[in-house]
Write the structure tokens for this entry.
Amino acid sequence: MRHGLYFLPAGELSDPRTLIELGIAAEEHGWDGFFLWDHILRPTGQPQDLADVWVALSAVATVTSRIRLGPMVTPTARRRPQILARQAITLDHLSLGRLIVGLGLGVDTSGELSKFGEVTDPIARGDALDEAAELLANWWGGERATIHSSRYRIDDVELLPRPLQRPRIPMWFAARGNAARPVRRAARYDGVFAIEIDRDGLRRVVRIVAEARGHLDGFDVAVHATQGEDLSAWEADGATWAMWSFPPGESSRGVRARIEAGPSMHGPT
């Protein structure tokens, strides 16, 4: 099982220089992944200072050489697919092929969709995510893309250079609770980040993926790690990544302390 850090770049953690320092420390202390939440607004009571994840991850990429990096997750509902594709290709090259892109519907908890006139209906956002994911997969796989829909119009476009990773940049998809559609979507690509599930839920996710793909080879299953819990049981049920998170507003000192403790199958108690 691999171990990743997964947190909101807000408050003290919105300073890109702090994120650079934490990225260096994460690599030095044996972590496998450094992932940032992608938000532009947060609810009242949480820090409102936020860093752009693409700029921040690019900075971290320049001072690390091994650790995997990525947004976890980016909502395509508020990003044009062609811009997202370009950003990811550039970061893939900058990191020498260490990028993993997490994708999802996003949330409107703090109005980061509705306050900007974005679509809020979850079914419509799911349809748009399906279309955007197919576009991204085509472009990152070195293929041309065409689509004429109510959401996107793209006419026979190729985006070069290709990413360094083959067959393309890995794509993970968020799946929350018992929802089946996000899991089936993830099964078409490279990984799922299963949020707010127990071990029964994890086994269900793994079963849906295995049925859809016919196998689990090369497919990642990421789960939220809880301090003091034995992750070996989750690994036995199919999890390949443990994602260690922090509450919004966590101090840089608190994150650094967890990083310096190093990854483990239990974490500090």
About this structure: Residues 2-261 form a domain with the TIM Barrel fold (CATH 3.20.20.30). Residues 122-140 form the longest helix (19 residues). The longest strand covers residues 2-7.
